[in-house]
Design brief:
The chain contains seven helices and seven strands, in the order βαββαβαβαβααβα. The chain is α/β, with parallel strands linked by helices and about 250 residues long. It has a single domain, classed as 3-Layer(aba) Sandwich (Rossmann fold), CATH 3.40.50.720. A seven-stranded parallel beta sheet has the order 3-2-1-4-5-6-7, sandwiched between helices. α1 crosses α6, α2 packs parallel to α3 and α3 runs parallel beside α4. The longest helix is centred in the middle third of the chain and has 27 residues. The protein starts with 6 loop residues before the first strand and ends with a helix. About 45% of the residues are buried. It binds nicotinamide-adenine-dinucleotide. Nicotinamide-adenine-dinucleotide binds next to α1 and α3.
Length: about 250
């Protein structure tokens, strides 16, 4: 099939990176189901691509809601070829103030939610011959940001480290269904998730990359879109850092 006939479900579509994924995929001519917990706008921003776009609400921590989003995509477009899963929550609570309830909430959305939406999408993709899944880890799993410079709490870091395990486990599990599973691991990226960082923190995060700046949503979206495409047909079970060379600069 031509790449433009492919159908991709994007979660976190009301957010920075998910929204940029929707924009990029539509621009490339693909068909997209844009999903988020928050209601999405009426598609006004994509007026010239409305025949390629389905907007839906999803709570990825709810199994029935994940299935409903996949079913809605199949009903509208007749197939599903990929999932880019960017929905997630950040958390800045330090170790002293973190409650068990809050820790579990982060894991429920970021980890169990990832499993639930990936499984629902895999079951949908299996109906039409397979596909690809892209998850979201985080550079915070490599670099401790517990110094207050970036404010990622142990719960967030643990949840994003779990995604690395899930990538391998799901790549193995879904291989018989002809579904590849990879993840992007963004460094600090200019979205609502990083909007609560102060100016000093943002400068610090930029300075510790080889690029000398934090990333843009579009830069992450282009790599996620590559991984979900057939151009990445031999990439499976990988976590791809998209961080301006942060690992080498610090
Ligand atoms: N922005 C960064 O600096 C950065 C760095 C590393 C990793 N990441 C990861 O990249 C992904 C995208 O980040 P972003 O910066 O675009 O975040 P964002 O906050 O802009 O968007 C996240 C979206 O997820 C949605 N969401 C939250 N809970 C949900 C749920 N239960 N069901 C469905 N949707 C839900 C939110 O409504 C929001 O629109 C996240 O997984 C994040 O952890 C981001």
């Amino acid at each position: 099939m031509s790449s433009s006939s492919r159908v991709i479900l994007v979660t976190g579509a009301a957010g920075g990176i998910g929204g940029a994924c929707v924009d990029h995929l539509l621009h490339e001519g693909l068909r997209v189901c844009a999903a988020d917990l928050r209601p999405l706008d009426d598609g006004e921003a994509h007026e010239d691509a409305l025949d390629q776009l389905l907007l839906t609400q999803v709570d990825v921590s709810n199994e029935a809601s994940c299935k409903a989003a996949v079913d809605a995509t199949l009903e509208r477009f007749g197939r599903l070829d990929g999932l880019i899963h960017m929905a997630g929550v950040h958390c800045s609570e330090d170790w002293e103030h973190m409650t068990a309830d809050n820790f579990n909430r982060i894991l429920s959305i970021n980890v169990c939610g990832t499993f639930l939406i990936a499984r629902a999408a895999a079951q949908g993709m299996a109906k039409t011959g397979g596909g690809a899944i892209v998850l979201a880890s985080s550079g915070s799993t490599n670099l401790s940001r517990q110094d207050g410079k970036g404010n990622s709490s142990p719960a967030f870091v643990a949840s994003k480290a779990a995604i690395i395990g899930l990538v391998g486990a799901l790549a193995r599990s879904f291989a018989p269904l002809k579904i590849r599973v990879n993840a992007v691991s963004p460094g600090a990226t200019d979205t609502a998730m990083s909007a609560n960082f102060d100016e000093d923190t943002m400068r610090h995060l930029g300075e510790r990359t080889l690029a000398g700046r934090i990333g843009s949503s579009t830069e992450i979206a282009k790599v996620a879109s590559f991984l979900v495409s057939n151009a990445a047909s031999y990439v499976d079970g990988q976590v791809v850092a998209v961080n301006g060379g942060e690992t080498f600069a610090s």
